[in-house]
Amino acid sequence: MRFLIVIMFLPIGLMAQKSKGKPKLSHGQGTLYGYWGNNRSTYTRSNIHFEGAGYDFNLKGARATDKKTPFDPSIYFNPAKLTLPQYNVRVGYYIRKGYALAIGFDHMKYALTDKNEVLLSGTINPGIDTVNNWSGTYTSNPIVTDRNTFNYGQTKGLNYLKIEYIKTDRWFEAGEHNWFVLSTNIGLGVGGILSTTDFTFAGKSNTSSSSYLSGFALSAQVGVRLEFFKHLFIQSSFSGGYMQQVHVPTRNNEPNAIAKQKFGFTSFENALGFFLYIRPTNDCNSCPHW
Mean pLDDT over residues 88-108, rounded? Predict the structure, then answer.
């Protein structure tokens, strides 16, 4: 009789064991995540080379800043205007426990500071620049730029489109069912730079009508992530890296008018994100566990 009872209830026990779902781990294989945030960025001094019809010169030691959009609820909380401030967006997927691949878009801004003390080298043909009266051949001549007569930047978009490899570690868990988790991320990124350029020189002001692939970038990041109720998180990250722009169009109707530069950068971001658990569960290859 005992043998028959065991035989009768064994399938039920096996089915119960089989139906037990896998635990939801934010850094577990098969977890999808995404976030949206805002950033502030800084840049090292750089040498900017300008080429065009009648000029070929270099500005050494140029300083630049980002361009923060002042806080305004009608901008920062308006879906139609979310892309006006500097922002970051990510979508990532954990390919195995603790390791993720992500694609991201960092919308930064680069603005040459006014009254920039730089060294001018190169050649500017006579009659090209009658505003600043830059004319002739220069060899590390000190000058101070004026934003009204000379300006350069990507104030509508120094955009870093990248792929990241992320390592996540969980350090602290609290609450019933671990409703709160503290984790950290470290990662490496590589990608291209999409630029929308402003350029004022020789009495002409120009803003690119579209974005151009102008170069490449390398970066590294560290971040702290606070996770809530398995599905939501807030994250603060610090990143730094190197950008090299090899072909920045500066005039809409002059294909030979370009700028070139390379510089280092740092960026600090705060973001709000989510997790989705799309991995198969219960040996079902088509049943995601949300």
Answer: 95
In the block, tokens 């970066």 appear at 219
Does residue 16 or residue 226 have the better pLDDT? 226
DSSP one-letter string for 22-54: PP--TTSTTEEEEEEEEEEEEE--EEEEEEETT
Cα separation, 60 vs 48, in Å, equals: 7
Helical H segments across the chain, by residue range? 2-19, 73-76
**Could you tell me the pTM of the whole model?**
0.83
CA 33 – CA 94 distance, rounded (Å): 8
Total domain count, the chain = 1
Asked, for residue 26, whether it belongs to a domain, the answer is no
In a domain, 185, yes or no: yes
| 43 found inside a domain | yes
Choice between 1 and 205, residue whose per-residue pLDDT is larger: 205
Do the domain assignments include residue 5? no
The answer to whether 41 and 264 have CB atoms below 8 angstroms apart is: no
Class of residue 84 by CB neighbours under 10 A (exposed 0-12, middle 13-18, buried 19+):
middle
- Residue 27, token pair as written in the block: 């850094």
Answer with the residue of higher pLDDT: 207 or 127. Answer: 127
* pLDDT grade for 22, boundaries at 50, 70 and 90: low
Instruction: Give the CATH number, domain containing residue 103.
Output: 2.40.128
**193 token code pair:** 């730079």
